[in-house]
Amino acid sequence: MASTVVAPPVDDPRTRGRLTIPQRVVQRIAAQAASEIAAAGGRAGGLLGLGGRVEQGARPKVTATLSSESVDLAIELALDYPVSLRTAARQVRDHVAERVRTLTGVAVHRIDLTVVAVGLADRADSEGLR
């Protein structure tokens, strides 16, 4: 006589548990994604916001506000000069939203950009991704 194996019932994925993504992780992913745009960078040096310099190797400062289903991001970044601020802002917003959504599964509800510095580009390729 053959024995029959009965598989345990499959639970609804929503009842199995929960994955928590810390705010700090979302901030770091967004900062890295913003820095992947060639015209964008961060600030380096300075004290209390004074005397800093534009450094394309530095990551922008990001603040994330997580809710149950989405995230709002505030990004402080430096941009190369000359660059179209509108074009650079669109590139940063689109790229950050796509990377955060892809890597975390969290929808980006809003991205506020603050350009804290504009500096001379130190490389010839100031368009596209790094």
UniProtKB/TrEMBL annotation:
In terms of superkingdom, the source organism counts as Bacteria
- What InterPro entries does the database record attribute to this sequence? Asp23
Family the entry assigns? Belongs to the asp23 family.
Q: What is this protein called?
A: Putative alkaline shock family protein YloU
Species, as recorded: Microlunatus parietis
